[in-house]
Amino acid sequence: MMSSDFMYQRRRMVETLVRTYGIKDERVLEAMRNVPRHLFVGEHLRNQAYGDHALPSEAAQTISQPFVVARMTELLEVSKQHTVLEIGTGTGYQTAILARLAGRVFSLERIGSLARQAISRIRELGLQNVKIQIFDGTVGWSDAGPFDRVLVTAGAPSVPEPLLEQLAVGGILVVPEGDLERQKLVRYQKLRGGGQRRQEGEPVRFVPLVGRFGWQGESI
Ligand code: SAH
Question: What domains are there in the chain, each with its CATH number?
Answer without folding.
Answer: 54-219 (3.40.50.150)
